[in-house]
Amino acid sequence: MSAASNLGIALSGLLLLSACGSSTVPELMNLRTNRPGPDEFAIVPTKALQMPTDLNTLPPPTPGGSNLVDPTPEADAIAALGGNPNARGNSDGALVSYAARKGTDPSIRQELAAADLDYRKDHRGRLLDRITGKTLYYKAYAPMALNQETELERWRRLNVATPSAPPSGTAQAAQ
Q: How far apart are alpha carbons 171 and 82 in whole angstroms?
């Protein structure tokens, strides 16, 4: 047998084997899928059901209204921080004061950015990512990135109060 016929047999075998494989990629691993997948943020857990002591004293139903088992994330967060969710006014100043009672670090964003950069330098990704210098992570999430200065300006044009602003030059100059 000649080298050309051996090569032809090898290519034919490779073609036959590749036809046996599956080309489907699990939805969670395929960042480029065009199909609508599950939205893990749409699942909101409810609170535990409670049996009332007297079934005759139940309030009348309120169709479309709130329910005792509906999630209340803001009130739950206020209660977890030691506040009273029923005593909220127009401002969350008391909550912010309580959360900052042990002090705040004005350079926390810069510290976190530096720690993130150090982590990414130590964990550089897969071989192909290191060779090309690119990762799929940034490409996959680039359309969802938020430009904080542009967003701050958008909210200010709408005359919405912005109690906290990003610590960059553009936003600080606008204050």
A: 32
